[in-house]
Amino acid sequence: MKRYIIIGTFFDMGGGQLYTRNKTDFLKKNGWVVDVYTGRSGKLYLDDMKMYEDNYYRELNHIPFYTSVKRQKQIIREIAGDISQYNEIVIESHKQPFALWGEMLAQYMQAKHVFFDLDEDFVEFEEWYYDFLDFKYERRELAGINNMSMQKIFKSHREIAEGKNYYLKFSCGNSICDINNDIIESAEEADINLGSISRLNKDYIMPMMKEIALFAQNNLQKNIALFIVGDCDDKTIELKIKEIFSEIKNLKVYFLGYLSPIPQVLIDKVDYFIGTSGSACLTAAQKKVTITIDTMNAAPIGIMGVDAANAVFADGKCGYERLSDYLQHICIEESKEEIRDKICLQDELLQNDYMKEFKNHMKFIEESENKKNYYNFQQRPLKHRAFCKIVSILGIDKCINIRNFLTMKLKK
C-alpha cells in the first residue's frame, strides 16, 4: 500500500484548506491511503475533512525544537503509526514549522518529504533555516506556488538559476453551485458590483479596501456594491473594514462569510472580481473580469486571462501603481464586455481541473532526488539550540506571554 501524509491546514476556510481538500480527493482516487495533520485549530467548514478533525497537535504550529524531545518523539510515533504495511510513503508539508516536523517525521519513517510552500509572504529567516531550505532545494524537494516564489523565499541568500524556480500549480479552486443566498439575492441594484473571495486576515485586505473606498469617492455618481466572501478569527478586522466605508454613501458592503460552494448567483451578480491565487483563477474561469493584485500591498497586476499570467506578486507590467487608478481605468473607462471577450480560457492558469494538475505534482516528486537523505538539525547554531531548550522547558505559552509583556513594556 501507498501512504501520503499532509501536514497543512483544514480548519477554517481559505486557499490552503481548499487545496488540501482537493489534494486528498485526488490521492484517494489514485490509490493512496491519506492522512492529514495540522497545528492550526478553528472551525471545520469542509465536510470532506471531517475524518481528520482529531488529527490536531498544537505543537505542529511551532518549530519542533520548542517542544521537549520526549514530546517530539511521541508526536512523531503517533503520526507514523504502523510503517510496515506501506511500501511507499510520501510526506507533504505546507508551512515553515510544518516543514521541520515533516523532515523529522520523514527521517523516522524513511519516507520522501516534499515541502510545498503555500505562503505568499516570506519573512527573513535565521541562517540555519536557509541552510535547511538549500538542502531541500538541491534535492528538488522544495516548491512554491508561483514562478517568483523561490526568489521571494531565498531573497538575497541564493541566486535562482533560470529554469530552476520550482513551483507547482496551487489548485485550490472552490466549487460553484446553483444554491440560494438570501443576502446576494436581496442586494440592492448597483451600477458597479465588485467582489472579493479571501480570508480577511490576508496582508492585502486592508490596502485593497482603502483603494476601493478611494475609487468610490472618486465616482460619487455611481452606486457601488462590494460583496465580500471570507472571514477570520479576528472579528475586529470586519469592524475596521466597516469603518473604512462608513462615510462613503455610494458604496454598500455585503459580508457573506465563508462560502463553500460558491453560489452561482454571486458569479452572476458581480461585474468585477478582485483577488489573488486560486480565487482569481476560479472567477476568471467563469469569464468574469478578474483583477489580480499583489498579495502584500494590493498593487494591481492585471486582468486574469487577458494580460496577467501571475495572480500573486506584482511585476510592474500593469502600468498602474494604485488599485484605485486601475479600477477607474477598468470599471469606468473600459468596456466590461470587451474585456470579458478577451479572457483566454486556454491559459493553463485558468484550468480548474485539479485531477489533471495534481499529476504534475506527482511527476515533480518522482523527478526529485531518489537517494534517501535528511537534514541534520544538529547543525543548528549552539545559541539557537540553547534558546530552544529554554523554551521547551518553560513552555511555549509562558514564553509567548513573556514576549508580549516585554513588547508592551518597550512600547511604553
Descriptive notes:
There is one protein chain. Helix 2 crosses helix 3 (96-109). This protein has two domains: 2-173 and 356-379, Rossmann fold (3-Layer(aba) Sandwich), CATH 3.40.50; 178-350, Glycogen Phosphorylase B (Rossmann fold). It contains 15 helices and 13 strands. The protein is globular, with a radius of gyration of 22 Å. It has helices at 15-29, 69-80, 96-109, 127-138, 149-154, 182-185, 205-217, 236-245, 264-269, 277-284, 323-333, 336-342, 354-366, 382-394, 396-411; strands at residues 2-7, 32-37, 88-93, 112-116, 142-143, 176-177, 192-197, 224-229, 251-257, 262-263, 272-275, 289-293, 300-303. By secondary structure, the protein is α/β, with parallel strands linked by helices.
Proportion in β-strands: 5-15%
**If you consult CATH, what is the topology of the largest domain?**
Rossmann fold
Strand-and-helix sequence, N→C? Answer: EHEHEHEHEHEHEHEHEEHEHEEHHHHH
The pLDDT mean sits at: 89
Total number of helices: 15
Strand order of the largest sheet: 9-8-7-11-12-13
The N- and C-terminal alpha carbons lie at a distance of 59 Å
| Integer tally of domains | 2
The CATH top-level class label of the largest domain = Alpha Beta
Give the helix/strand class: alpha/beta
Give the tally of β-strands.
Answer: 13
